[in-house]
Amino acid sequence: MVHSAALPAHSHIAEPPLLFHSERNSDQHVHPLQGLIKFGPYSRSIERPLPDPIRVAFIIPNNGAGKMRRIWNGFSSTLTPIYQRDYLPVFPGFESAFKVRLVAAKDCNVLLDIPDNLATQSQPYKILAESFAQAIATLSARRNEFDVLIIYLPSSWASGFVGGATDDFDLHDFVKGLTATHQIPVQLIQEKTADYACQASIIWNLSLALYVKAGGLPWRLANSQQSTAFIGLSYALKPGATDNRFISCCSQIFDDSGTGLRFLTYGTEAAFVKRQNPFLSRNEMARLMSRSLSLYQNDRAGQLPARIVVHKTTRFTTEEIAGCREALKRVGDIELLQIQEDTPWRGIQFVQNLGRGQLGGYPCERGTYLPIGPREVLLWTSGDSPESAIAGKTHFYKEKNSIPAPLLIRRFAGHGDWQQACNEILNLTKMNWNNDGLYDRMPVTLSYASTLARIIKRIPRLASGTYDFRYFM
């Protein structure tokens, strides 16, 4: 027998606007890059120590000056996009877009002489790791002479980018962890990325990243809720752990406008693992939440947020819920949300045509949400975004093809309808300043925290503590 059940009607949230000025509320745009071109970056309107010019140091291969020069020249060029023309505007040059200059720092270049036969070495990743450790130490001695470091990675070094089958090594994570200990923001550029046909997209991406890593704020959320703090949690298992596994705990706290404040990291053995997913004890969760709340207060002269929303990708256990409530009892409103990326649900858009429904030519709109239970909702953070299309276009679907899958959101604490929670998650998908896209599928609370968790589990020298989020972008 086939059983049918009716679901509630779906609802839709408009594409969130971004704010590009601290005082002029009219300086808003849903498209991040068009907003930059029209209004300039948010940092221009606030008293924030942003260097002008932004000075860039380099670590490149001994024979890589030509390739790096071609990339560098792109920052001062006008570049027309080849792909994504329904979204990507012409790159007008770094200074035109960000209103500050970008220059090469004087005498802050390190040339790496890596052997041509790197791939034939028994452990090529160790050669690269040792070379980069020395180069970064050299530049650290001149830290006050540059603002951001660029590292160019040629494809000929690819054999050393990861370790062997029994070596938990990743060059990207190794370099990020090492530069973080020296308080150096870094941008890695792989040759295969630099050779991408659409140079406008590459230079937009790199320009945004360099601007933010130098301390700039390109935009903030325009429709944020005052005095709300967002905490993204991620845990990672240390490699080679025994039954009593050591867990790396990572937390990043964001203010109500979606701006990342600081990362918090520490390790614990007071946890249990189920299906490779770590869960904290009540005391350890209370400890993590207390320290996260302190980060917010330190940035707000001791002021408590009126509301705290905690995101993680796994469920909240009873112990974890109790730990959150214990640590955040002075906060009036607490919401605990599991945001699950993998779900079998799909949605297909039908449109009215001559009084009859027919399959639409584009997927359902981004921002569509559908409650499927008293504490569960589906939210489409990818899909058609007509408001974000370049002038003259009527649709923009970032993924171009396939049927977009929604996020499954479960509420473990909190109350109210789903519109506010879904709107906040949709907002936070637009706050990854490390790429030129309209959105990420996951909110930045979780994408940044998971990146940090992956990095610190491999870097034993990265001590527990707080770190500027720019070092891990």
Automatic annotation (TrEMBL):
It comes from the Bacteria. PROSITE patterns: PIWI. CDD domains: Piwi_piwi-like_ProArk. Residues 148-461 form the Piwi domain. Signal peptide: none annotated. It holds the Pfam family Piwi. Gene3D superfamilies: 3.40.50.2300, Ribonuclease H-like superfamily/Ribonuclease H. Belongs to the argonaute family. Long pAgo subfamily. This is Protein argonaute.
